[in-house]
Amino acid sequence: MPSVRPKQAAACWLAELGNGDKFLFDIGSGCHERLAAQKIPYDYLNKVFIGHLHVDHMGDLPSLWLGGTVMNRLVPLRVWGPSGGTPELGTARSMELMKKMYAWDIGTRSGVIDFRGGALEVHEFPFDGVNEVIYDENGVVIRSIPAVHGLDGAVSFILEWNGLKFVYGSDTFPNKWYIEHAKGADIAIHECFLPATLLVTKQGFNPMEALMVGTQGHTSPEQFGKVMSLVKPRLAIGYHFYNDFDTEPEVRKRVRKTYDGPLDLALDYMVWNVTKDDIRVRMSAVDEEIWPSPALKKKIAPDTGSAIAFSPFTISGALGFPEVTGPIFDEINEMYGTDIEPIFKK
Ligand SMILES: [Zn+2]
Ligand SMILES: [Zn+2]
Questions:
Q1: How far is the CA of 171 from the centre of ligand 1 (A)?
Q2: Among 49, 155, 265, 286, which is most exposed with the fewest C-beta within 10 angstroms?
Q3: Alpha-carbon distance 86 to 271, whole Å?
Q4: Which ligand has the shortest distance to the CA of 11?
């Protein structure tokens, strides 16, 4: 964090509610692998809320969108994200361009697999809405508040369900909206960047860069602590720094200069079980040999007529090896009583 590394993917938070609803907040580079390790059928991972359009907060969206379809998601992917200072900088425009960027990928799937999960449903909302409702379904209400980060067009989210309140800052400099509207949170997540001293010594920043990035573009541990001392959540969670044995104590020490309440400094796969009486912290079990879960509903055979054909040129180079491929088709046809023929016959 903010750059992906083996120990830590970029920003992504999964909120699972007791009613079965699941919500993804940010979908940064590297997080798709972490999500896959949780063995959740992809039909459940179809609601994504993006706080801002930095690659460490949306880099794995194409992977979840198109990869998720191949991994048996049969429902549209629904994406919520803020407008920008101009229409060109908003989420809707970004999603339109993402579809164009992946035209070839989409082309290979048309008429080949059940591609219902390739549908993309985009909900852009005004970045300057203050505590405005952007989602209200099944007793779950999600609101957005403006964030101060990068450019106009960054937001934080507040999810409320069943008397519980979850606040996710995405990236933001300390701001009045977070302090006002995160009050009463059971879980309040806010960025907590590496101290400027470590940006110089461990990341090679010059002192000017370190101060600008670490305290003006982002939120330092001391600033994070100040925010949390004003919000007073049941649990404050800091994230967005390389969390190692030698950085964690330094970050914690600095947060403690300004905040003495309940605190976690997030690691990948950390899980919080939240009820009205208790917040339990644990680490999730990871299956490194994960395969996609089966589809939740019956797949529809694709309309092969809509497949895009190869040109005669490419076909002229294909070697069908019928003596090799034929027995593979025979094996499956005998097992399943089908009559499928290879495309490349010669
Ligand atoms: Zn970030
Ligand atoms: Zn950012």
A1: 5
A2: 286
A3: 37
A4: 1
Å from CA of 67 to ligand 1 middle: 23
**Burial bucket for residue 148 (CB in 10 Å: 0-12, 13-18, 19+):** middle
- Cα of 273 from ligand 2 centre, angstroms: 27
User: Which ranges of 2-79 does DSSP label H, i.e. alpha helix?
Assistant: 31-36, 55-58, 61-62, 68-70
Are 117 and 13 in contact, with CB atoms under 8 Å apart?
A: no
Ligand 1 centroid to residue 218 C-alpha, Å: 9
Specify the higher pLDDT residue, 153 or 304. 153
CATH topology for 10-130+279-308 is Metallo-beta-lactamase; Chain A (3.60.15)
Domain residue ranges in the chain: 10-130+279-308, 310-346
Ligand nearest to the CA of 10: 1
End-to-end Cα distance, the chain: 51
Query: DSSP H helical segments within 285-342, as ranges?
Result: 312-317, 322-336
Q: What is the mean pLDDT of residues 2-31?
A: 96
pLDDT digits (tens, 9 = 90+) for 187-204: 999 999 999 999 999 999
For position 344, what pLDDT does the model report? 87
| Separation of CA 224 and ligand 2 centre (Å) | 16
| Residue among 189, 148, 225 at smallest CA distance from 25 | 189
Q: For residue 107, report the distance from its CA to the centre of ligand 1, in Å.
A: 32
Q: What is the DSSP string of 230-280?
A: HH--SEEEEESS---TTTHHHHHHHHTTT--S-EEE--TTEEEEE-SS-EE
Residue 49: how many other CB atoms lie within 10 Å:
27
Cα–Cα dist 343/346, whole Å: 9
Q: What spacing in Å lies between the alpha carbon of 185 and ligand 2's midpoint?
A: 23
* Ligand having the closest approach to the CA of 240: 1
Name the nearest CA neighbour of 52 among 208, 213, 141, 170: 170
**Ligand 2 center from residue 149 Cα (angstroms):** 7
**Is the peptide bond prior to 207 cis by the omega test (within 30 degrees of 0)?**
no
